[in-house]
């Protein structure tokens, strides 16, 4: 248990260090002197608060909102984790409900933070050519967010909601998984899911929001 928590903490530190090296305060738009920066991406009008709310509703109750918890429940079922929830249909149902609850809390936190901090929740596909450059865009936009004014910033809403929801889930987790370390682990897994979703949006256009399907 201690080694797992330590590994998760190292992963969080690594993500944060990468983000600090790639981002600047919200509203900044000159990235000439950064050691790395998001390359040319597709453009779209800034989202209103209502549009951000609608986006989070889709992330909660659309295909993405149901598939993620289902995959997580299947993995938990295979690993029998948490062990207190057992196996069979009942165990899967509890794990799936837990995943749905975690996602709802994450989307709620994300909406509040990105609205207050003027961050855009969308992934912006690269306009560069070549797999490596496009993959670099996927990695960078996991820790960097576009602001409503067109600049770039550390993805506070994404990070805060991922780890906040991970810790909040301890409220209904059984004793074996009700620890701060497991909360960190859930946050890291959530960011891994964001990375995978960014990858899909980069290379599979129909997965993107309608305004970016070109």
Describe the 3D structure.
Residues 1-9 and 11-35 have low confidence and may be disordered. Helix 1 (2-22) crosses helix 7. This protein has a two-stranded antiparallel ribbon with strand order 1-2. It has one domain (45-209). With 214 residues, the chain is an all-alpha fold. The chain is built from seven helices and two strands.
Given helix and strand content, the structural type is mainly alpha
Multimerization state: single chain
Can you tell me the number of structural domains? 1
What is the overall shape? globular
Largest sheet: 2 strands, antiparallel
Estimated share of beta-strand residues = under 5%
Number of strands: 2
Q: Calculate Rg over CA atoms.
A: 18 Å
Number of discrete helical segments: 7
Which strand order spans the largest sheet, edge to edge or round the barrel?
1-2
Low-confidence stretches: 1-9, 11-35
Report helical residue fraction.
55-70%
Overall mean confidence score, pLDDT: 86
Please provide the ordered H/E string of secondary-structure elements. Answer: HHHHHEEHH
Provide tags for this entry.
single chain; 214 residues; mainly alpha; two-stranded antiparallel ribbon; 7 helices; disordered N terminus
Secondary-structure map:
Elements (H helix, E strand, L loop, with lengths): L1 H21 L26 H13 L1 H17 L8 H30 L13 H13 E3 L5 E3 L1 H13 L11 H24 L11
Antiparallel strand pairs: 1-2
TL;DR of this structure?
By secondary structure, the chain is mainly alpha-helical.
């Amino acid at each position: 248990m201690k080694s797992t928590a330590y590994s998760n903490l190292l992963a969080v530190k690594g993500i944060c260090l990468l983000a600090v090296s790639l981002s600047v305060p919200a509203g900044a738009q000159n990235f000439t002197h950064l050691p790395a920066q998001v390359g040319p991406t597709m453009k779209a009008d800034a989202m209103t608060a209502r549009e951000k709310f609608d986006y989070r509703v889709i992330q909660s109750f659309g295909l993405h909102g149901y598939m993620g918890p289902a995959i997580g429940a299947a993995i938990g079922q295979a690993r029998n984790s948490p062990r207190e929830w057992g196996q069979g249909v009942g165990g899967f149902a509890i794990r799936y409900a837990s995943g749905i609850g975690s996602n709802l809390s994450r989307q709620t936190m994300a909406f509040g933070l990105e609205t207050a901090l003027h961050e855009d929740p969308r992934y912006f596909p690269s306009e560069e050519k070549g797999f490596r450059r496009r993959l670099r865009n996927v990695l960078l936009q996991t820790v960097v967010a576009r602001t409503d004014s067109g600049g770039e910033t550390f993805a506070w809403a994404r990070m805060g909601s991922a780890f906040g929801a991970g810790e909040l889930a301890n409220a209904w987790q059984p004793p074996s998984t009700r620890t701060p370390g497991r909360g960190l682990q859930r946050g890291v897994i959530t960011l891994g899911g964001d990375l995978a979703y960014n990858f899909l949006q980069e290379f599979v256009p129909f997965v993107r929001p309608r305004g970016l399907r070109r």
